[in-house]
Amino acid sequence: MATAAQWIQGARLRTLPAAIAPVLIGTAAAFEMDSFLLFNAILAGLVALLLQIGVNYANDYSDGIRGTDEDRVGPLRLVGSGAAQPEHVKYAAFGAFAAAMVVGLVLVVITQSWWLILVGLGCVMAAWGYTGGKNPYGYMGLGDVFVFVFFGLVATLGTTYTQAGQINLASIIGAIGTGLIACALLMANNVRDIPTDIQAGKKTLAVRLGDKHARESYVLMLAVAILLVIILAPGRPWMLIVLLLIPACLMPAWLMINGRKRKSLIPVLKQTGLINLGYSLLFSLGLVLSHGF
C-alpha cells in the first residue's frame, strides 16, 4: 500500500504551476476591466488544481496498466512502480475530478453561466481521455492540443469570463502564451520518454516529430510565448517586463538541445514549470501596473 508521501509524490506537485498560471493571468485580465472578483478567482484556481491532480493520477493509472511506465526515468509513478493498486489510483483520479466538478458548479451558480457546465464536463472527459479509454488521444500525438486548449485557452479565458462576463485581448494573448509554455513542459516530458513511448506504441507529438525537431519545438514555444507580449506593449508598456524571463529560459533551452541523456532532461521539467509560473506573475504584474495608463 502506498504511503501518504508516495500519494503526494504521485500527484506530481511540480506540474501544479501549469494549473495556477492561467488563473493568475485570467484574473489580472479581469482586473484590467475593473471586474476583479477574489472569491471567483479562488474557485477557478481550485478547479484548475483539482483537474491537474486528476489528470496526473489518471495518467498514472492508464499508463501503468498499459505498461508504459515500466522503464520510466523521472518522478514516481504509483501504478508503474507497484506502490499502489491500479484501482486505488483510478479512484483518486475520479475523486479529484468529482471535487473539481463540485467547485465548478458553485462557480456556475454564482455567475449564472449555466453553459459552463458543458465546458466543465468537456474538461473532465478530455482529462480522462488523454491516456484513458480504448483509444487515448495522448497516444496519437494529440495530448499537446489538449494541454494548449484546456490549460491555456479554457483555463485563462474561463477565469476572466467568470469574473468580468467577457474576455479581452490581454486574456487571449495570455491564454496563448501560458498554453504554449504548458505545451513546452509536456514536450520536455515526452522527449525524455521517447524511447519507452516508442516501445509501448505511444505516438506522442515528440515521437512523431522525432528527437531533433521535438527539442527545437520546445525552444520555439518558449520564444513565441514570451515575445507575444510585444503585441500588448502599445498602451500597456509594463507588459515588456515579461521579457525579463528570457535569461531564465536559456539554461533549459540549452539542456533541451544538448542534453543527450534522459536524466539530463529531468531538471528541464522543474525549470519549465517555474518559467510558466514566472510568466504568469510577470504578465499579471504588467497588466496591473499598466492599468489606467
Tell me what you see in this structure.
With 293 residues, the protein is mainly alpha-helical. The protein has one domain (4-290). It contains twelve helices and no strands. The radius of gyration is 19 Å and the shape is globular. 51% of the residues are buried.
Strand content: under 5%
- Straight-line N-to-C gap: 57 Å
Order of helices and strands: HHHHHHHHHHHH
Radius of gyration: 19 Å
Number of domains: 1
Quaternary structure annotation: single chain
pLDDT average, as an integer? 91
Proportion of residues in helical segments: 55-70%
Sheet of most strands: none
The outline comes out as: globular
Number of helical regions: 12
Low-pLDDT residue intervals, each spanning 5 or more residues: none
Class per helix and strand makeup:
mainly alpha
Question: What's the β-strand tally?
Answer: 0
Record the SSE blueprint.
Blueprint: H1 4-10, H2 17-32, H3 38-66, H4 86-111, H5 116-129, H6 143-164, H7 169-192, H8 194-200, H9 205-209, H10 211-227, H11 246-258, H12 266-290
Helix pairs in contact: 2-3, 2-6, 2-7, 2-12, 3-4, 3-5, 3-6, 4-5, 6-7, 7-10, 7-12, 10-11, 11-12
Q: What attributes characterize this protein structure?
A:
single chain; 293 residues; mainly alpha; 12 helices; 0% strand
